[in-house]
Each structure stands twice: as C-alpha cells, then as structure tokens.
Amino acid sequence: MKIEIVEDLKERMKMDNKYAKDVIKGKVKADGKKAEKTIIITPETFAKIFSPERIKLMLKIKRNNISNIYQLAKELHRKYEAVHRDIKLLEGFGIIKLKDKNHKKIPFMDEPLTIPELAAG
C-alpha cells in the first residue's frame, strides 16, 4: 500500500479523472500493471491519521506476534479502548486488518506501507 501526500486533493482528483478518460478514449495506453492500493491525502489529514501513537501501534503489529488487541494495548501501555479505536480507524483505511482466532481479534498488516518521496510541485 502506498500513501501519497498531495497539497491539493481536488487537483489530484482532476488529474486522475483526466488520465482515466484518456485511457478510455484510447489517447493513453494503460501500463497493464496491477494497480497498487494508494491512499491520497493532504498533509493535514496525514498528520491526523498518523499520530505518533498510531505509528507505534503499526510498528508493534508489524514487528511482533500479536495475539490480540488487549495484549497490544498492554504492551503499548495504553487503554484497550484507545487502541481498539485506533485499530478500527486504520482498518477503515485498509492499513490494518483483523482476523478472528479463538474468539479474539488479532490485528495484522499483510502488505508493506510506503510513502514515496515527495515530488517538487
């Protein structure tokens, strides 16, 4: 999964729409590659989603064998409710996934998360 930070979301959407229309009209040939899942957000939204606590949470999930949300909260020295809320938010963006095992919710990340170099614009 890729995160792309853009200054103007509306401008980016216009560019994407123009590209899609050009492909449909045959003006541009699609590259044929499988599309990588991309989250396109502004710097302000990025700062709200990726707080230091959520980044720590993602790092802990990625590096450790997490058995459930309660254990994760305990290891992070945070309240269960706060960790659960953060997991649900990140799950909504497709960054974290949950699987059920023995009536427990186990958070995991099954694909790398990248933030490409910011392009000069």
How many domain modules?
A: 2
Number of helices: 5
Average per-residue pLDDT, rounded, comes to 86
- Helices and strands, in order, run as EHEHHHHEE
CATH superfamily of the largest domain: Winged helix-like DNA-binding domain superfamily/Winged helix DNA-binding domain
Poorly predicted tracts of residues: none
What is the beta-strand fraction?
A: 5-15%
Task: Give the strand order, joined by hyphens, for the main sheet.
Answer: 1-2
Here the CATH topology of the largest domain equals Arc Repressor Mutant, subunit A
Structure description:
The longest helix is centred in the N-terminal third of the chain and has 17 residues, at 9-25. The strands form two sheets. Strands 1-2 form a two-stranded parallel sheet. The protein has a two-stranded antiparallel sheet with strand order 3-4. The chain is elongated and about 55 Å long. The mean pLDDT is 86. The protein has helices at residues 9-25, 43-49, 52-63, 69-76, 80-92, and strands at 2-5, 38-41, 97-101, 104-108. It has two domains: 2-45, no CATH class; 50-108, Winged helix-like DNA-binding domain superfamily/Winged helix DNA-binding domain (Arc Repressor Mutant, subunit A). With 121 residues, it is α+β, with helices and mostly antiparallel strands.
